[in-house]
Amino acid sequence: MRKPIIAGNWKLHKTISEARELVQQLQESVADVSDCEIIVAPVFTALASLASTVAGSKIQLAAQNCHPATSGAFTGEVSAALLKDAGCSYVIVGHSERRQLFGETDDFINAKVKAVLAAGMQVIFCVGETLEERDSGAMFDVLARQVREGLRGLDNDAMRHVIIAYEPVWAIGTGQVASVDQAQDAHVFIRGLLAGFFDKCVEEQTRILYGGSVKPDNVDGLMAQGDIDGALVGGASLKAEDFIRIVRFTRQ
Is the model's pLDDT at 95 over the cut of 70? Predict the structure, then answer.
């Protein structure tokens, strides 16, 4: 059984005090949850403070991004090793906003994936197509390229520390959400790609999350699908009540 993951990507929101307040609300309400892993990804400035807040709780920390270099003349960047030192166990890599807004290439993302793994953390590796790519029939080609190039050079052992997040770009922050069938089909396709690139055990064990306007009113249907192993939640993770409901999704 693949243990579900519910991860909240806070993006560019929350001061340190606001982040601490939200985490404290979450801790009180998810203390008894044992059937899924719970992750939050605050802004860089809140990481060290939240690491002490969540210590010993059910909540783990992720960073939203990293630079592939360990150190050097990279003004404004943060390395995977520094994120681990700040208390992170996971790093989100390849989010569509990084690809679309900051021009991150498959090669650059692949270097980040390797850097996170080398630092001893788990990577949440994001893939997904735009609406134009879906409508033009290029969706599966795009996903195949992103998975192939993003995971290039990894072996079966390294893949034990990789979580994939499928995020259709057209459903992120738009209020739109892929239908459960659309989401399941994409997850099945991605899992099939893993079978072609790695051993059978990688296909069976890799957790694939869905991200794209996940909310309390659609999480149950998504999580009922056989190949959806959790959610990467955006806006709804900023509200304690909504995120708690998502963590407590109902298995249908």
Answer: yes
In a domain, 252, yes or no: no
Half-sphere exposure of 57 (CA within 13 A, CB side): 21
The residue type at 210: Y
- The answer as to whether 48 is a domain residue is yes
- Best CA proximity match to 28, nearest among 3, 54, 63, 60: 54
What type of residue is 26?
L
- The domain that holds 47 is classified in CATH as 3.20.20.70
Taking only the tens place, the pLDDT of each residue in 18-57 is 999 999 999 999 999 999 999 999 999 999 999 999 999 9
159 falls within a domain: no
How far is 207 from 91, CA to CA, in rounded Å? 15
Give, in order, the Cα–Cα distances in Å from 185 to each of 38, 50, 75, 80, 192.
25, 36, 41, 33, 11
Is-above-0.90 flag for pTM?
Answer: yes
Q: Beta strand 122-127 with 90-93: parallel, antiparallel or unpaired?
A: parallel
- Within 10 angstroms of residue 86's Cβ, the number of other Cβ atoms is 17
Residue 197: strand, helix, or coil = helix
Q: Structural domain of residue 178, as residue ranges?
A: 5-153+170-216+223-245
Tokens of 176: 């739109």
Lowest mean pLDDT among 111-115, 116-120, 128-132: 128-132
Predicted pLDDT at 170 = 84
One-letter amino acid of 202:
V
Domain count for the chain, please give it: 1
Q: What is the DSSP letter of 227?
A: T
| Residues catalogued as catalytic | 95, 167
What are 172's two structure tokens? Answer: 């992120």
